[in-house]
User: What shape does this take?
Amino acid sequence: MLLRFSKMHGIGNDFIVIDCISQRYTPQAHHMKKLADRHFGIGCDQLLIVEPPQQAENDFRYRIFNADGSEVEQCGNGARCFARYVYDRGLIARKHIKVETAGGNIELYIESDGIRVNMGAPILTPLNIPFKTDTEQTTYNIEIDGQSYKVGAVSMGNPHLIYQVDDIDNAPIETLGPLFEAHSDFPKRCNAGFMQVIDRGFIKLRVYERGAAETLACGSGACAAVVSGILQGLLDHKVTVQLPGGKIHIEWLGGDNPVFQVGPAEFVFDGKIRL
Assistant: This one.
């Protein structure tokens, strides 16, 4: 079959977007791996699937596949690209878009300074992250090869580990990233964020993403890092996050309030590929 697609990115975190409303296509893991391959396919960090909603109150269903073919619950940068795609392609005329994901429902707003995403309230209960521990804490100690690491654990619809470092440029992402991602305390693996706090309103962040390795940006990872930083008393309620691909802005008032992220979403090109 000949499949139409669009290539997009959110501050360097790149996606293939497939419209399964105007064309018939059933996502399959082996197709996802082929499409994501940067040498033999199109190339991307993740694939975003646009589908009709399963719940009447929503406008769309949004599915996310990693480059390794695994389906995941949430992607913040992808959510912004999703909003830009469905609005610019005329699939919806409203600038307030309600979307269902495997990690829960989210709301997207197209604004003059970018795309605002209501990511919902962070999930801190260990069982629901999921993270293996008996009691909820601000930080946890996990063991790797006999060494203890102090980390935060937060879900934004997908599980995140947050590890604070003194120097983001020299953070041991290549070595620790895969070990954090696959740590047995995270039954569904995790996205591993390495966070350097510059001041109460600004952090630098690099993320080793589950199923994709390090990416240029991770929106849900930025949300999780800010939540973890606020819980530790390190950050204010509005924080600019510098990722390798650019900056996004995160807001959280604490408690059961939703986390908001604001940032850009860009088209790269449209194409067709035969599967």
User: Anything to note?
Assistant: The helical segments are 29-36, 76-88, 173-181, 219-231. The longest strand covers residues 2-10. The domain at 126-258 is CATH 3.10.310.10 (Diaminopimelate Epimerase; Chain A, domain 1). Residues 34 and 41 are 6 Å apart (CA to CA).
